Amino acid sequence: MNFASTQFVPSRRMGICEPLPQIGMWSDYKENNYLDTSTPAILEVDSRFDNQVQFVLFIICMHCLVFFGHMLINLCVIYVQSEDTSHGIVEPSNKYDQEVSKTNDKQLRRLAQNREAARKCRLRKKAYVQQLENSKLRLMQLEQELERARQQGLYVGGGLDTGQLGYSRTTNPGIATFEMAYGHWVEEQNKKTADLRNALCSDITDLELSSFVDDGMNHYFDLFLMKETAAKADVFYLMSGMWETSAEHFLSWIGGFRPSELLKVLEPHLGPLTEKQSLELSNLKQSCQQAEDALSQGLERLHQILSETVADGLLGEGNYLPQINAALEKLKAMVRFVGQADHLRKETLLQISRNLNNRQAAQGLLALGEYFQRLRVLSSFWTSRPRESS
Amino acid sequence: MHEPILYGNLLLQQKPPTLRNPNLNPNPNNVKGIKENASSLYDFSDLKNMVKDNAVIVFGKKGCCMSHVIKRLLQALGVNPAVYEVDEVDENEVVIELEGIRAGDGKQCSMQFPAVFIGGRWFGGLERIIASHITGELTPLLKQAGALWL
Question: Could you tell me how many CB contacts below 8 A there are between chain A and chain B?
Answer without folding.
Answer: 59
